[in-house]
Every structure is written in structure tokens, then in C-alpha cells.
Sequence to fold (318 residues):
Amino acid sequence: MRTRLFSSLAASAAALILLAGCGSSADSSSSGGAAADSDPDTLVFASIPSENATSLEQQYANVIKVIEEETGKQVEVQNATDYAAVIEGLRAGKVQIAGLGPFSYITAKDSDVAIEPVAAVVDSPDEEPGYKSYGIVPADSDITDISGFKDKNVCFVDPTSTSGYLYPTAGLEDAGIDPESDITPVMAGGHDASALAVASGQCDAGFAFDAMVEETLIKSGQLSEGQLKVVWESEIIPGSPVAISTDTMTQETQDKIKAAFTEKINVDALVQDGVCTDAASCVLPEESKWGYTAVDDQLYDGVRKVCEITKAEACTAS
Fold:
């Protein structure tokens, strides 16, 4: 595959080393999913930022506060450069809580990383967690649909990104485009980076998740209304899960974390418990307007089916 990288391989390697060395978890020989006899002194929460303008610490400040209160433990936030670093941190037993995409979750789960999905963000308590991938081009582009991506420089997010790679790959194949030979793929490293690269002309076209294009980058002032044109939309993708390690923490701690996400980390509870002063100022990850709802492994079977269709290399990563 003729792929160019915005972020250096050295940065990814450094992130793997960082995650492998953090925390005081059980070692990597524990991979069968059995709860540990004891917990690490500090719980490590690893994720990649959804956009450069907002740090993980800012996004997850209220989440971390609740987890610390509910478990009685400190939580250390680790900012990874890509999903591969987060997955390897989980595999090595050095990460206890992880923010993953649906694709990176099944990549980890189906390669025997001992994890369980516990929650995903929603905008209302009765909403199903989900979002879409958008195929985007500059507003003045003559490309009108995904078939126009052929022979173009096309920005993706990451090889293990659901809305930034897996579903777009399926969309390209449906349009008769070979994602390895009919385009020049560019791995931008983030949804924001992909969208901004398209807007600046570094890529002729690209992919990013819906809210990044329609809300986040416009609110931050990095894009203006109408600067990008959406020419393709995916089917609904199940919401990105927060997953927990099942073999580096006691069952009691796992249960407390699950309850924190599904019962305490929502705007109603956060305001009631005094974590947030009011709903308007209550910051949650992915700019959720409400909070988290419970999810389970079966929710992601649709992503597995897309893997079967596309036969993406990352789907079979060990």
C-alpha cells in the first residue's frame, strides 16, 4: 500500500514504550480474562485525543473525578498517538481503562486481549450509541460522490479507526475502488487532521466522523461553515466504547468502574452530585450532551461483519 504518514513512526514507538512502562499493573502473561487478586495503586486511562484543540485531561476531567471517587484510587491519563499503542498497553497489562473506537475494540478483543466494553457516549438517556463516517471534499471540488475518489490523494485517520478507515474502505470497495491500488491513501493520525488536510488541499478527499466535520472543528474555529462538502455517508456505526481490562483489576474494582460510567457519569447525575455546577458547563468526552450508556460485546458484531466483507489487514492483526 502506498501510504504516507503525517505522524512519525518514532512517535508511535515512543507511545508504545510509554504505555508499556506506565502504572503498576499485572504483567503481560495474564491474558485469560480472570480478575486479578489485587489492583494496581494507580489506574491508567489511555486513549487518543479526538481533536488537537482539546486535551484528554480536559475531555475526561469529570470522568476521572467520578472514577477516583467511586474506586478510591488515583487515575492517570495517558495520551497515545494511535489506537495500536492503546491496544498494546492493554495487552501488556499496563492499561486498565481505555477509550477505543469500535474497530480497535474488536481488533483487541478478537486477538485475545482481556477486555470488556462497558459504556459509550450518547446525547440523551434514551438514545442508542452511534455515529457515521463522512466522505468529505473541499467545498469547491468537482467530486460529487465517493466514486470520484479514484486516483486521488485520500486522507484516512488510522488503520484501526472505524469511521476513519474500516467503513470508508467498505464504501470505496462498494464503489468499485480498490483502496490499495486505485487511490493514494494518507494516514492523517486523527479525525481533525484528516478533515483539516482536506480543507487545506493536502488531500483531495478524505474521511472523518460526522460530529468532527459538522460541529467540533467549526466550534473551535478551525473550519468555517461550508468549507467542506459531504459526498458520502456510512451506515450507522455503533458508539465508540470505553473498555476495561478484566485481568489487571479485582472484580470489585471492575464493577465500580462499570457503575460509575453507567450510573454516575451523565449530566443529570454530575449536576446532582456537585461535580458540575450546571448542565451547560458540564464537559464530557466527544462533546456528549448527556453522558454514557451501557454497551456489550454483541453491539459490535456489525463491525465484525464489515471486517469479513473488507478483509482489512488490521481485522486479522494479532
About this structure: The domain at 133-235 is CATH 3.40.190.10 (D-Maltodextrin-Binding Protein; domain 2). Residues 28 and 92 are 4 Å apart (CA to CA). DSSP finds eleven helices and 14 strands in the chain.
